[in-house]
Design brief:
Number of strands: 9
Keywords: Membrane, Transmembrane, Transmembrane helix
Oligomer: single chain
Low-confidence stretches: 1-9
Shape: elongated
Biased composition (Low complexity): 16-47
Structural class: alpha+beta
Helix content: 25-40%
CATH topology of the largest domain: Protein Transport Mog1p, Chain A
Distance between the termini: 162 Å
Protein name: DUF3558 domain-containing protein
Region (Disordered): 1-52, 115-144
Strand content: 15-25%
CATH class of the largest domain: Alpha Beta
Transmembrane segments: 56-77
Length: 249
């Protein structure tokens, strides 16, 4: 028997061919996905990742942030408009009683009250009282509210016949607030201060006339409520006006 030549066909020695390893089938695809065609390898497909929720959350967060910024900016704009708005009204040109229209234009400008206030102005012949009042002129006297009031009582014209000294004593006894006697203003005078902030009032008597001067106001604040003017400012204002009036009565 001749030995088997290389490249010739036939069983190997021993008479049997070696067994080939059996290939395992590819794993089946997940339910709901199409099956691969026979004869082609099957690949396991991964479901798509869900990114939609993250994107929506990001968009919502950005939108809320923008709304907060817009709201804050709108609040600041509104607050600034209120803060910068001029105080007072357009010129009223209201007529003032001659008995109390004694405050100079220079002092009215210094106190930011150049506009006669018709809601204060008045006369009472029975008591002999004349009242003048001033407030800010819009666009001229700044952004803060101020009010000046002057009452002049000619006791000689009063119907009840009360003397000036007696009436002035009543004013002193009925005054509410911290009272301080003043010298150099007519025959007698005193200052009334009401609280740490607010209106101050000077009352003085010269002969048969009694004069009351009141000054009050509010200061605006940018991001908070308005506050009353200080006692020092209102006290100095009424003293300044009273000194001028004494010289003109």
């Amino acid at each position: 028997m001749h030995p088997q030549q290389p490249g010739s066909w036939g069983p190997p020695p021993g008479g049997q061919f070696p067994q080939q390893p059996i290939q395992q089938p590819y794993p089946q695809t997940q339910p709901g996905y199409p099956q691969a065609q026979p004869g082609y390898p099957q690949f396991q497909q991964q479901p798509p990742r869900k990114k939609r929720g993250k994107r929506i959350g990001l968009i919502v967060g950005i939108s809320l942030g923008a709304l907060v910024l817009l709201g804050g900016g709108g609040y600041l704009v509104t607050a600034y408009m209120k803060y910068s708005k001029p105080a007072g009204d357009p010129p009223t040109n209201a007529a003032l009683p001659a008995e109390c229209d004694l405050v100079s234009e220079q002092i009215l400008q210094r106190l930011h009250v150049t506009n006669p206030d018709p809601t204060i102005i008045g006369e009472d012949p029975e008591s002999g009282r004349s009242t003048c009042g001033w407030g800010p002129t819009e666009g001229r006297d700044g952004n803060n509210e101020r009010t000046l009031r002057v009452d002049v009582r000619d006791v000689s014209k009063a119907a009840d016949g009360t003397g000036a000294a007696e009436m002035f004593e009543r004013f002193r006894d009925s005054g509410s607030g911290e009272l301080q006697e003043l010298s150099g203003l007519g025959d007698e005078a005193f200052l009334v201060a009401r609280g740490p902030g607010g209106a101050s009032e000077v009352n003085f008597r010269k002969g048969q006339k009694i004069v009351t001067v009141t000054y009050s106001g509010w200061d605006k604040n940018f991001l908070s409520s308005s506050t009353r003017i200080s006692r020092a400012e209102s006290g100095q204002a009424v003293k300044t006006v009273a000194k001028e009036l004494v010289s003109k009565l």
